[in-house]
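2024-03-11 09:14:02 INFO receiving multi-entity request
2024-03-11 09:14:02 INFO entity count = four
2024-03-11 09:14:03 INFO echoing inputs for audit
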Amino acid sequence: MNGTKHEHDEDAAAALRQTSLRVTKQRVAVLDAVRDHPHADTETVIRSVRESLPAVSHQAVYDSLHTLTEVGLLRCIKPSGSVARYERRIGDNHHHLVCRSCSLIVDVDCTIGQAPCLTPSHDAGFVIDQAEVTFWGMCPDCTAAGAQLTGDDQFSAV
Amino acid sequence: MNGTKHEHDEDAAAALRQTSLRVTKQRVAVLDAVRDHPHADTETVIRSVRESLPAVSHQAVYDSLHTLTEVGLLRCIKPSGSVARYERRIGDNHHHLVCRSCSLIVDVDCTIGQAPCLTPSHDAGFVIDQAEVTFWGMCPDCTAAGAQLTGDDQFSAV
DNA sequence: CACTTTCCTTGACTCGTTCAAGAGAAGCAG
DNA sequence: CTGCTTCTCTTGAACGAGTCAAGGAAAGTG
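2024-03-11 09:21:47 INFO inference complete, emitting structure
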């Protein structure tokens, strides 16, 4: 295992110093939590942060996630039917594969060429700045387990 | 103006009869409401339905939207930061352009070829059944008005 | 028309998220 | 190092889209 807790903290602190944000232990812990739990939801981040800082308020985590997303240190994704999830892989506009059964999210790189689907057939006069692609399906585990879609999944899916 | 209220009702009723669902005036009204308000949210559907059926409960509308989506008469979309929205254009897996400023949603047809982006660079073993593409940007009106993104928009956007 | 099954009404409730006020700490100037 | 200013965190209440549950109403069937 390379990458100690301390190195993570240093890395997170350095990232924070490059913004105009203050370096607080809460924010460092939130950045580390998201690094350790890819595509984590807020609840997971809160639990993870509390392992090192038992007294953090949920509001501090919400605030940190918002602020860090605003300055570009985190990216927020919200697949249909899911709560907000955060990731530290930013700046490459990669896309996501979401399991309809267990909500597992996996990163996928751009599909065709380097700017896939960035040109809709007509843009209706819009100034487009991002194309977000979400692939829906079943992850290997759920496929193997023969998982069936629940009514709710079907509803929120299509 | 072609397409009277009565014709719409007949059309909606016919669509319902092709499923195993009962034809109720609430469901007919919901179908008509979604036809009349493309990409309408639930609140809009409720208001629209109450123009002809003042006494419908919000629960009846929620139930109808769910059921109609399940049987494939409606499609539900939920862009990040937006509530659920419904549309009657189904079966062609078209995509959406969303204005970051006013939340206007516009349909766009498939982009490259007929099955755009349906093949991620690696599928991580997933069985993929749908690729959902959302284009984010600014609609013509907001661009002309020089609308700036609010902090909140920026947050939920990237 | 009577009966069965599905659907709608009513009203309470959940859960993720946000709001607001005041206490606390980060960073800077001296 | 010390005090000051400003930003950040804690506390606790509130919000809103959506859901749950029980009983009454209406659609479809024979």
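2024-03-11 09:21:48 INFO post-check: Residues 22-24, 41-43, 58-59, 62, 83-84 of chain A lie near DNA strand C (CB under 10 Å from a C1').
2024-03-11 09:21:48 INFO post-check: Confidence is low (pLDDT under 50) at residues 150-158 of chain A.
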